[in-house]
Amino acid sequence: MKKRIVSLLLSVVMLISLLSVNAFAADKFTLKGSTHELEKVVGQTISFKVDITKNPGMIAGKFTVKWDNTALELTGVTFNSKGYPDRGTPEEITSTGSFPVSFGDYLMKSNSTFTGTLATLTFKVLAAAETKTYPITVVVNSDDMMDKDGNEVACEAVNGSITLKAKTVAVTSVAVSPKTLDLEVGQKFQLAATVKPDEATDKTVTWKVTKGSDVVSVSADGEVTAIKAGSATITAAAGGKTATCTVTVKVPACNHSEDKLTHVDGKAATCTEDGVKEHYLCTCGTKLDLDKKTVLATTVIPATGHKTEKEENKATCAKLAVCDVCGESYGSLKKHTVVKVDKVDPTCNTPGVKAHYECSVCGKWFSDKNGTKEIAEADKASYVIPADPDMHVYDIVKDSYKEYDEGYYVEQFQCTKCGDSYWLASVDLRNVDVKLVQDGKGDLKNAKVEVASTSVKTKEVMSLYYNDTANAGDTLSLPVFFNYSKSATEAEAIAALKKDIAENSTFTVKAAATKSGWKFTTDKTYTVTVELDDAGKIVTKWVGSDNTEVSAENTPTFTITGKKTTGGGGNGGSGNGGSTTTDTTKNDGKKVESGKTFDAGIAMYVGLSVLSVTGGVLVIGKKKERF
Known about the structure:
Layout lengths: L1 H23 L4 E5 L1 E5 L5 E10 L5 E7 L5 E8 L18 E7 L11 E10 L7 E8 L14 E4 L1 E6 L7 E5 L2 E5 L3 E3 L1 E5 L9 E6 L4 E3 L4 E4 L3 E9 L2 E10 L10 E4 L10 E2 L2 E4 L4 E2 L11 E2 L19 E2 L6 E2 L7 E4 L10 E2 L2 E4 L5 E2 L17 E2 L8 E3 L5 E2 L4 E8 L5 E19 L7 E9 L12 E3 L4 E13 L2 H14 L2 E10 L2 E5 L3 E7 L5 E7 L4 E2 L6 E8 L5 E2 L19 E3 L6 H15 L2 E3 L8
Parallel strand pairs: 1-9, 2-10, 12-19, 35-44, 38-46
Antiparallel strand pairs: 1-3, 3-7, 4-6, 4-8, 5-7, 8-10, 11-14, 13-17, 15-18, 16-17, 18-19, 20-22, 21-24, 22-23, 25-26, 27-29, 28-31, 29-30, 32-34, 33-34, 34-35, 35-38, 36-37, 36-39, 38-47, 39-41, 39-45, 40-44, 41-42, 42-43
């Protein structure tokens, strides 16, 4: 019993002693600086707080804050109105990197046990600040802390910090190369991941087998190892973005032993040609890296592409760009600088041009204002409006007409507008009679009659033809002229006439008629030979298709027979349209002399246009009609 009492007394004594120790071992007055982590922005302000986390009771105190004043500038100090008041903190804030802060009131009657934010110090980030952690040191001393009885108060401090980080740039995409991969069991392959943008803050890539983890494995840096046959998916992730590579593993058909490998030299890429990565080629066709183990999906080093920075090498609408490196032309032409060219009307001797567009840089022609429809060189001629001969106003030059004993005559003509002039040398041949008859029923009236000549040598129709209308029983008497040669001088005109006769002297002369509902046949054709005799005189010979020669005293004749048909019109010989005559001067329904023609001046002009090049027979309605 006594032992139990003694034990109880000892326990009581121990409890009292413990209570007295705890009562006297009060907590220290503790200040704690705040910590901050933020992106570095020059000029931004940071509110650094100094908090009382433990307070056994006191009335006033003082602490000092220290910092790196090359990176941070103290701009202000404010006190919490609910805590201790300001007690003489300096109003002027210096940039020495150390600042004292006094708080409380020595006249307080009782201790304050306030906890919470004591003061807030405002710092500004300077341009010299780096992206790192800057410690903010809170310095305290017990002899600066006092309670209401004038006693020192034990104290301690926990420092704060300001961490400046680089600006965060988010990842926008991740790409894995290659996207598909074929491996054999036991092979390895290094995948590559590209993170965009290049300035992303965190470009760390994590690799993971998201399908078929028993088929392949992947290391932290993206190296794939084939484990067994099958398919698998490997995912690369960075900044919340992902990309995948599909891997197909097959059982190896070849072990790529040393004796099967051939070294392949590398080749650098050029502007236009791909290069080749140095590697080993197995007899099975597999390409291995220089470690002779890693399979290469490709050994091609892509061509670098052309580069042009020199101004003189840049592309225009007229020339392609030239590579500064290799000197080759490449790319496409630039757009044309298109300006409109208005229509220019022709004159009697100067061609005009249709409206179009031209590039002021390269001179190309276009049919549209956007310069997309180019006019080819071969088509430019279609835009030229020929000089209009009809605008010439030719008059016979006074006293220029001359007749020569050799059987030809010459005349000179001059345009009153442009002064253009030429000489003509002509030969008169003879009249031909064309008789129109009717076979059978019907009333043959107003048939169109024509005479044409064709060069035996060239097979070309060499003359204009004379058109007239006639009735059955009429005979038309038509004069035939030969070889109007247009030349610059009188002598040249005569020489051209003789040359034409020498080179192209035989012609076939035919007569024909046309009328709707009628068919016509002509009894014969004539072969006309025009020659110069030894004395230089013109000699002509007319031979009919019946081999009958027509003497100079007689007139070559044609008989055209018309027969009524049930269908449309017909024609009985050659003829390709031309001049139009209206009526004929009749003589009791028998012989008709050509009384009316189209304007003789136009007839002569058109005839000369043809005959000035090759010569030929010209059949018109009036003999020696002048203009």
